[in-house]
Design a protein that fits this description.
This protein is an alpha/beta fold. Helices cover 30% and strands 24% of the residues. Bound molecules: adenosine-5'-monophosphate-propyl ester.
């Protein structure tokens, strides 16, 4: 239920959430179905770190997403699916139908040996069965680890390995724009090095040729025939793991961010309803016109988990899922879908807005867009120009924009306007939600008090959706988020608080880059480049990119036999594509004979970043480098 109805409410709730966080969150948690109420609301310390919410509480999140709504909204549409090809039929599922689908597939999982606590990897295209698979795992207490379908076999096998998955759910392939993406063959390649996987369940989508391994691979449609749609929920502890989602870090290995059942449920539902002002109870029951929410993110990312699947379903909303891309068959596709389904709330990424803005208004003009009520932005800072374009041309100056700042690790939205209630400012995520206590620290860890300050964004108090650990490696969680500044959660972002106390995220302050809204570790991309047999060493940095936000600039050292050539650059691109996936392909590759290093061998990325940005008059002191001459060579050869 929406609890913030005015800016006064916001201020009151914010104050309460800081004075008495336990009471504040207990009140929110009480709105759900629990098999057993919690004994204690919160226990925490940021030192180890050890954070637990709703201790002793028992629940199943799918009971709250599905069963809980059957009495009132069984015949309301829960999920609308818009296919990649606009001529293919739309699919719709009422809450009752989605409940049955999830139960069916939960039974398929059980029939194939899955049980509570197992890790299940999901590598699928954006079809309803992906959401069904996620919910089916949660229903039986298996921990899902969704891997974005754009990652290639190496990234996939790393993630399967790290989580010791014993089952993979995939499809023969997926449609994205004019392309058919092979998925099953990528799984086959990945599984060559993953002996823990005993079963692969394959959905038929593109009908491409696949090889099915006897005893290991089964078809989704065959398995469904063997089961019923009756499946009791597995009773989970509030702090049992719900899912693992891998995110890039400053080292080469992605981190398995762990979220748990109780806190994540309360946090995603609360933030969904309040930020977007989605009140299912005020909408007419039944039919499809009960407030259509469309989040364009892929379920392979946290935004898809929290605001395509869990948040909306917990709220009893109608969530729209789109299989394709914004430019297929043309750059008007998003706007066409909004009109076709009368979308009320539209949540997308700045990179998509910028790329569609660049295509011109002719793609927007044919559409009315008059069903829209709220617009959202997520994933990277939105520049003022894109914000204004979005506000004017898509929202027709009638729709508030919620610029929502959050992270895979935060589970849900943290700093954001409340739609229609908070006065917005282009480029600003504005104010913290109730329950969120941000601070800005200087590089020594001193808190910057007051307004008009800029520093590193940290949190000083836990919220229910906070990361609990990184899978199988708690030390890494501590090191990455809780060690830089003692007793604070460190976000890795730089941030400014302006004269009004509004927050503006300035970008990452570590070695990860946001490319088209996707977080990529530079070390991870370097590892992929170094898979090329002729590359000795590489260094990757980001550079400002008009559409993508950040582009990837790779400096590579080939062995002596290979000359600087387009051929070599093409091969490097193909290598990254093969080992990591198309999202990590460098925009620029510069062949160099050496890299600027300190005497201790550390690459001076600061210098490389400046060169990539073209800021060459301001490289700082290079005299302490191992080989200062290399800088001159790199500047000359800049691409
Ligand atoms: O740098 C911030 C940026 O995205 C990072 C988190 O990325 P990820 O874990 O992939 O989650 C993305 C979806 C929540 C943050 O550390 N970021 C996210 N939203 C915004 C943002 N930067 C500025 N403004 C935002 N609204």
């Amino acid at each position: 239920m929406i609890s913030i109805n005015s800016f006064e409410d916001y201020k009151k709730q914010y104050a309460l959430s800081v004075q008495n966080p336990e009471q504040f969150w207990e009140d929110k948690a009480n709105q759900f179905v629990w098999k057993k109420k919690w004994d204690k609301v919160l226990e925490w310390n940021f030192e180890e770190p050890d954070v637990k919410w709703f201790l002793g509480g028992k629940l199943n999140i799918t009971e709250n997403c599905l069963d809980r709504h059957l009495k009132e909204r069984a015949h309301q549409t829960a999920l609308i699916w818009e296919p990649n090809n606009p001529n293919e039929a739309v699919r719709k599922f009422t809450y009752k139908e989605l409940h049955s689908e999830v139960c069916w597939f939960a039974n398929v999982l059980k029939n194939n040996g899955a049980k509570k606590g197992d890790r299940i990897c999901i590598y699928m295209p954006m079809v309803p069965e992906l959401a069904i698979a996620v919910l089916a795992c949660a229903r039986i207490g298996a921990i899902h680890s969704v891997v974005f379908g754009g990652f290639s076999f190496n990234s996939l096998s790393d993630r399967i390995h790290d989580a010791d998955c014993n089952l993979v759910i995939t499809a023969d392939g997926g449609f994205r724009g004019s392309k058919d993406i092979p998925l099953k063959s990528v799984v086959d390649e990945a599984l060559k090095t993953c002996p823990t996987v005993k079963k692969v369940i394959v959905l038929e989508r593109t009908k491409c040729n696949v090889t099915m391994l006897a005893d290991r691979d089964v078809w989704w449609h065959d398995e469904i025939k063997k089961v019923s749609d009756k499946c009791e929920v597995e009773i989970m502890d509030a702090e049992d793991m719900l899912f693992i989602l891998y995110t890039s870090g400053s080292t080469g290995k992605p981190k398995g961010v762990v979220h748990t059942c109780g806190g994540y449920m309360v946090y995603t539902a609360y933030t969904f309803e309040n930020v977007f002002q989605y009140d299912a109870t005020s909408l007419p029951l039944g039919g499809t016109k009960s407030g259509i929410f469309w989040c364009t993110a892929d379920i392979g990312w946290i935004t898809g988990h929290s605001y395509l699947v869990y948040g909306p379903l917990l709220a009893g909303a109608t969530t729209l899922m789109f299989e394709g891309i914004p430019t297929y068959p043309d750059a008007g596709r998003f706007w066409k879908i909004i009109d076709k389904h009368s979308v009320n709330i539209f949540y997308t990424a700045p990179t998509a807005i910028r790329s569609l803005e660049a295509m011109g208004l002719d793609f927007v003009k044919p559409y009315k867009l008059n069903s829209l009520r709220v617009l959202g932005s997520v994933g990277e800072p939105i520049n003022v120009e894109a914000w204004e374009w979005y506000y004017k041309n898509i929202g027709k100056e009638n729709c508030p924009i919620v610029d929502t700042w959050w992270q895979t690790e935060t589970g849900g939205i943290m700093i954001s306007p409340i739609a229609g209630i908070t006065v917005t400012k282009p480029g600003f995520a504005t104010l913290p939600l109730p329950g969120v206590q941000p601070v800005l620290l200087d590089e020594h860890g001193n808190e910057l008090l007051g307004n008009n300050v800029e520093g590193r964004l940290c949190m000083k108090f836990p919220w229910p959706g906070i990361i609990r650990t990184t899978y199988k490696n708690h030390a890494r969680c501590k090191e990455a988020y809780f060690s830089t500044f003692k007793n604070y959660y460190f976000t890795g972002d730089g941030c400014r608080r302006d004269a009004d106390g509004y927050y503006r995220i300035t970008g990452r302050v570590d070695d990860v880059i946001k490319v088209s809204g996707h977080l990529l570790g530079t070390a991870e991309i370097e590892n992929a480049i170094n898979e090329h047999p002729d590359i000795v060493e590489s260094a990757v940095v980001g550079f400002a990119h008009e559409i993508k936000g950040w582009g990837i600039y790779a400096y590579v050292i080939p062995d002596r036999e290979r000359k600087d050539s387009d051929e070599l650059k093409k091969e490097i691109t193909a290598t990254v594509n093969k080992f990591m996936g198309a999202i990590a392909k460098p925009d620029k590759i510069q062949i160099v004979s050496g890299l600027p290093k300190t005497r201790s061998g550390k690459i001076m990325r600061r210098i490389l970043r400046k060169i990539a940005e073209g800021d060459i008059n301001n490289l700082g002191d290079t005299s302490t480098l191992l080989d200062p001459a290399v800088v001159e060579e790199i500047v000359k050869g800049k691409v």
